[in-house]
Amino acid sequence: xxxxxxxxxxxxxxxxxxxxxxxxxxxxxxxxxxxxxxxxxxxxxxxxxxxxxxxxxxxxxxxxxxxxxxxxxxxxxxxxxxxxxxxxxxxxxxxxxxxxxxxxxxxxxxxxxxxxxxxxxxxxxxxxxxxxxxxxxxxxxxxxxxxxxxxxxxxxxxxxxxxxxxxxxxxxxxxxxxxxxxxxxxxxxxxxxxxxxxxxxxxxxx
Length: 206
Ligand code: NI
Fold this sequence. Notes:
Elements: E1 10-14, E2 17-23, E3 29-34, E4 39-45, H1 53-56, H2 58-71, E5 75-81, E6 85-91, H3 99-113, H4 122-126, E7 138-141, H5 145-161, H6 176-181
Antiparallel strand pairs: 1-2, 2-3, 4-6, 4-7, 5-6
Helix pairs in contact: 2-3
Nickel (II) ion (NI) binds at residues 82, 85, 87, 158, 162, 202.
């Protein structure tokens, strides 16, 4: 936020978040919201990396998100659902950093709703846990607008990275469709390759 060039950006207050607008070279209007200290990137993964449960039951996943957001609000800045993992950027309300509770509620709601047919390890069974999700998830506090933009791009390019699509727009269950509808990205956006490699929790995903 402190590095914003006043010649190309202006800042307005919008219900506690600040909205930045600028013109990029293409003339496309770009809008981002960023609340210092309240925006996080997540990678959340199924225990079975061969599973396709998240896309097969994306209706259940969306319902779980909706229910939890109704009781514990947060803004989804960007998100993509892959067969076995989710990447998402959330902004939490001011003074509220309890994303672990929100993810726990989403995971539990999803697990309750899908058939109990997945493999459960003996150790997990002994703890009474179901085996759908990895217990740990990757979390990164977004530092500034450039960091936010890099992680939004990372999310929208992710289906191509994982070999699920030739172009980011070709994959459902991605916020890129909202960005295109809003005019924030062109429909033929092909990703950005000038970003340094990020550790977004993919490496530990195997
Ligand atoms: Ni990924």
